[in-house]
Amino acid sequence: MDAAKLDSAQKALTMLQTTITEASTRKAAWKSALELFNISLAPLEHHPKAADPAVKPTIDAIKADRDAAIAKASAHGHKQAIIDLAALPPRCVNAEALADDFSEWKVLDGPRKALAQTYLGQVSGNADVDAQTRLMEGTYTHALADATAKKYKDAVAKLDLIPDMFKNLEADFHNKAEYDSTIAAYDPLIAAINALDVAVRTPVQAAIDTFNTRYAAAKFAVTANYKKSNQLLGNIADVHIYIDAETTAIGNWITALKAFDTQLTTFKAHAGKSGIQDIILEMERDRATGVTEATANKHTTALAVLNRSQPKWAATTTMAQDCASYLAARKTAQDKIDALSGTPEAASLLAQATTMLGVAGTQAINKNFAAAKTSADEAAKRADAAKAALTDMKTQGGYGGVIALGKTGIPTMPYTSKGMRRAWIDADGAVRVDV
Questions:
Q1: Which of 153, 201, 239, 434 has the fewest CB atoms within 10 Å, counting from its CB?
Q2: Is residue 273 one of the residues assigned to a domain?
Q3: What 3-state class would DSSP assign to 404?
Q4: Close Cβ partners of 336 (under 8 Å, ≥ 6 residues apart)
Q5: What domain range is 201 assigned to?
Q6: Which residues of 191-230 are buried (b: 16+ CB within 10 A; e: fewer)?
Q7: Are 270 and 214 within one domain?
């Protein structure tokens, strides 16, 4: 073999060795690149949302391009395979970010949707609040549109706006609910106060007018702000409490005064009023004091003064009835005594009857009207007995007298003669003589 052929063969061998070395290098580089890629792909394949329809197609597309690069490498196209594979790691990064954003959106979507639609369709009456409500609802709608376009990061950013929006609206709607509740409670109470009898309202009319004015100024239609309205309503609560308490006290006073006057009039017109004069005078004093207190708008005190005598009314009525019965019995006895007055034959019995009326009078002074009536009845009986005895004597045409002892131990000695000697011993052993 000549030198030229040997040199040519040497060059060919060198080129072959170079080609083999380059091919081996590319194959080794491919293998290394594939191993590194598979390492970067592993977290994506094991991502919690890797199988979710929103993420899986993206991962599958990356794996398909990887498999296409592997096919090229298998056909000894390692260089192009390496080039194709080099474009995949950034896509893995993006896919993993997509999976992370989707995962976060998936967690937030349900709760934020619930917040955003809490007041769905509700109208507060406040234009600003209603606008903010619709804005919150619209924010969720836009977030859902972003998610549908797989712009999960943008969707999450919008969902993150909703809690603060809801917090502000929640305070607004809470203030509205508080306002509505307060108005619902106040309106019928105020209507009831304004419908009260003039006599009840007049003493506190200035306070009622002030309250009505401040109440009207606290309405949302005036303030256009529920929080401010609630503050104004809270500031007039004490005024309403005062009016309610005072009108109740005034109403009770007026009712009690009517009952008091009716009872006082009844007592003053009663046939037995002379026996209850102390109670009548006491009630008249209490009425005067009560009216003075009421005039000074101290109706609770006035009512207490007026009610002081009320526990005595039943007993006083009984006492008046007993007194009336006693007075009637006394008049009956006195009339019978007066009818026999000037009749010498009845003088002794009439003296006894008169004495019994004296006993009755003493008992009446001590307010023992039941006993006084009994004594008056006894006096009447003695007068009746004297009349009967005298009538009997006259009927028989005789004259004379009789000494007798009554059931109470008091002697009786009627006579029809011009005089009669008589004597007796009383319960104390004293001897008494009379002609």
A1: 434
A2: yes
A3: strand
A4: 353, 380, 383, 384, 387
A5: 177-244
A6: eebeebeeebbebbeebbeebeeebeebebeebebbeebb
A7: no
Co-location of 236 and 272 in the same domain:
no
Taking CB atoms within 8 Å and a gap of at least 24, the contacts of 307-315 are 307/256, 309/279, 309/282, 309/283, 310/260, 312/279, 313/263
% of residues, the chain, pLDDT over 70: 90
- As a dihedral over the C-alpha atoms of residue 239, residue 240, residue 242, residue 247, rounded to 10 degrees, the angle is 140
Give me the pLDDT at residue 13, please.
Answer: 73
Q: Residue 432: helix, strand or coil by DSSP?
A: strand
**Pairing relation of β-strands 404-405 and 411-412?**
antiparallel
pLDDT at 128: 86
Q: Among 90, 65, 171, 68, which residue's Cα sits nearest to residue 128?
A: 171
Convert the pLDDT of each residue in 327-342 to its tens digit: 999 999 999 888 888 7
CB-neighbour burial class of residue 142 (10 A; exposed 0-12, middle 13-18, buried 19+): middle
Burial of 106 (0-12, 13-18, 19+ CB in 10 A): middle
pLDDT per residue as tens digits for the range 11-20: 777 776 777 7
HSE (side-chain half, CA atoms, 13 Å) at 147: 24
**Distances 32 to 25, 38, 39, 75, 155 between C-alpha atoms, Å:** 10, 10, 11, 17, 38
Residue 142 covered by a domain = no
Q: Tokens for 15, please give them.
A: 């080129």
Tokens of 255: 């009712």
- Helix spans in 54-161 (H): 56-74, 78-86, 88-116, 127-148, 152-159
Taken as a whole, the chain contains a residue count of 435
Overall domain count for the chain: 3
Task: Give the span between the Cα atoms of 427 and 355, in whole angstroms.
Answer: 16
| CA–CA distance, 117 with 113 (Å, rounded to integer) | 6
| Gap between the Cα atoms of 256 and 260, Å rounded | 6
